[in-house]
Design a protein that fits this description.
Strand content: under 5%
Shape: elongated
Helix content: 55-70%
Structural class: mainly alpha
């Protein structure tokens, strides 16, 4: 990975051409190296982006190796600002691919594409049997776009019932960001059993909701002292959220 990062930084036509040769004539492993290097070749805009996207989409039409497809989809995710409807159709065709690696990379690629077909495909991926795919698709629906439609809210509410806490929290976060007041009571239940590593995520949800009924709950939370080394960090986070709730006059 360090070698790939270094090649990305050099940004010369010669390196780009060598990568194209790897993609065209190399082994699967060499193809992946070429794909990964040119995926982040420069920025704002990326160098040779139009040509790179054409190469990626041509690959998707013929490639069968799941790891090569995975890298290609991730490569597109770094260059997806202006995806056409035709290109989107190609991407979404992988939604039923048998490989979880491919479906996960597709989820990553579709995030931030605010088109109906991308959203519909993310909704389908949010019900995937693989928990990592459900988690990232729910994150994409809830936090990676600013759309607020009935179908997005319905999909997020469906994931509030997910057996995995990470997925549930992503759904709760998406609904909190959309100021859905009905999520407050569910968030309180999650908060009562939240593990340390997810505490900041839940506090962000509370801040999005800006619901003053959380103030006494947070007041009690800041006095927890099960692990002194962790509790001081927790207290700072909780106090920061408390301060925001108390200072805001437009609480629910």
């Amino acid at each position: 990975m360090n070698y790939i990062s270094e090649l990305r930084k050099r940004k010369t036509k010669e390196i780009y051409k060598r990568c194209l040769l790897l993609i065209e004539k190399g082994s699967d492993k060499e193809k992946i190296i070429g794909i990964d290097v040119i995926s982040q070749f420069g920025f704002n805009p990326r160098l040779f982006q139009k040509r790179t996207l054409k190469i990626y989409f041509d690959l998707l039409k013929t490639e069968t190796n799941k790891r090569v497809i995975e890298s290609t989809l991730f490569g597109i995710s770094w260059n997806n600002e202006n995806i056409t409807n035709q290109q989107l159709d190609i991407l979404c065709s992988f939604v039923t691919h048998k490989s979880a690696y491919v479906r996960y990379s597709l989820t990553y690629t579709l995030c931030k594409i605010e088109k109906d077909k991308a959203i519909d495909t993310l909704i389908k991926l949010s019900t995937d049997r693989d928990v990592d795919i459900r988690d990232y698709a729910t994150f994409g629906l809830g936090s990676q776009n600013e759309l607020d439609t009935s179908k997005i809210r319905t999909a997020l509410w469906d994931r509030v019932k997910d057996k995995d806490q990470g997925v549930r929290l992503e759904a709760i976060s998406g609904l909190a960001q959309r100021k859905d007041k009905n999520i407050s009571e569910i968030l309180k239940k999650e908060f009562s059993s939240i593990p340390y590593h997810n505490l900041s995520h839940v506090l962000e949800c509370i801040e999005h909701l800006n619901d003053k009924s959380f103030i006494p709950i947070l007041e009690n939370k800041k006095y927890e002292n099960k692990d002194q080394s962790i509790s001081e960090i927790k207290k700072k986070w909780v106090l920061a959220t408390l301060g925001k709730l108390k200072s805001n006059k437009n609480n629910i």
